[in-house]
Design a protein that fits this description.
By secondary structure, this protein is an alpha+beta fold. The chain has 11 helices and 12 strands. 46% of the residues lie in helices and 18% in strands.
């Protein structure tokens, strides 16, 4: 490690656990290449950093990410087992090394840094969007009803109707516990709690309808990225055009393709969603993609409402357990999401919307 100048100080001021183990893994990667020097470090997210090294006359960069053990295993299986088994190993950056924190509470992954840019949502470029959509559709198509889905579900998440029903149920239980003697809400806070409970109980009553819709229009179960924000999608130049990469498989699991598609579409302006959906229709061969927009909007809404219900649970639990000051403001924000929710894809798209490019 002595020949890697500065590695012993990497992330020293970050307060992160497991740095000794992380530095040892990075040393294993760098020592084989000769003398190296840490030249820069950058925080990308609270638990994600970019480290830049000079190795002789070359530059080499790693993105290092700290995860809980279950998330780390999910990322490792997706990257090293599930995706390669379907010829999709180039879809996500390779893991250069893994380091478990000594206490077993955290795991670090080191990835080769991508020479790519995240997908833009402000005036999106149709060619770049198409590159990402083709990869997402390929992921869904190749894993549709695949025998490995049982393993993906075991180590990942079940993002089908069970995700909706369990989150709605757990959110109701968590909110209903915000009462004396454990929590003494003000009148305004109690009214917020009751309004959210009313919404969630309506969703609970709608479960049979939404389950039937997913059964009829949702298409086959498949492997899902589970967190398909555009910040997790990157596009880079390639010899044959553009190459899309997907990162952060923390929430990967099994469910209908509409779960991923809804997450992705919601990152864009409503005016752009119809032509992006058309891109997916062209690339995917699932039965659900031939459903009408109204049917698809019901599937998309079910996925989004399940995510809202999930977000209710955690501030409610924190209020019940620790009486945190941020709990009710967080619940008020979530109520505003419910109020603002509109059909994901406009039923009557504007006439001047971009035309989806032909698939190459």
């Amino acid at each position: 490690m002595a020949v890697i100048d500065g590695l012993d100080r990497a992330l020293a001021g970050s307060g992160q656990p497991g740095l000794v183990e992380l530095r040892a893994v990075l040393a294993d990667q760098l020592l084989a290449m000769g003398p190296a020097k840490l030249v820069a470090e950058e925080r990308l997210k609270p638990r994600v950093f970019r480290l830049r090294f000079e190795v002789g006359d070359r530059a080499r960069s790693f993105v290092v990410k700290r995860m809980e053990p279950a998330e780390a295993l999910r990322n490792e299986l997706a990257t090293r087992r599930w995706l390669p088994a379907q010829g999709l190993d180039g879809v996500t950056p390779a893991i250069a090394g893994i380091a478990a924190e000594r206490g077993g509470h955290w795991v670090w992954h080191a990835y080769e840094n991508l020479d790519a840019q995240a997908l833009e949502t402000d005036r999106p470029d149709p060619g770049r969007v198409a590159a990402v959509v083709r990869v997402v559709a390929m992921l869904h198509s190749r894993f549709a009803e695949h025998p490995w889905l049982a393993e993906c579900r075991q180590h990942g998440k079940d993002l089908g109707i069970a995700y909706f029903s369990s989150n709605v149920r757990d959110a109701i239980h968590a909110l209903d516990a915000l009462r004396p003697p454990h929590v003494s809400p003000s009148g305004e806070q109690a009214a917020l709690r009751d309004r959210l409970l009313g919404r969630l109980r309506c969703l609970r009553d709608e479960l049979p309808l939404r389950a039937r819709a997913l059964e009829e229009w949702g298409g086959p179960e498949t492997f899902l990225h589970g967190d398909l924000w555009t910040t997790n999608t990157f596009v880079e130049p390639a010899p044959d055009g553009l190459r899309a990469r997907l990162i952060d498989w923390d929430h990967a699991g099994v469910g209908p393709a509409s779960y991923d598609v809804s997450t992705f579409l919601l990152r864009f302006d409503p005016a752009d969603r119809p032509w992006i959906l058309d891109l997916y229709r062209q690339a995917a061969g699932h039965g659900w993609s031939r459903s009408g927009v109204r049917e698809l909007n019901l599937l998309f809404e079910t996925a989004e409402l399940a995510r809202y219900a999930n977000r209710v649970i955690w501030p409610a639990i924190a209020l019940r357990r620790e009486q945190v000051t941020w709990g009710f403001p967080a619940l008020a924000d979530i109520e505003s999401w419910f109020e603002a929710l509109r059909p994901v894809v406009p039923v009557d798209p504007p006439q001047d919307a971009p035309v989806a490019p032909e698939q190459g």
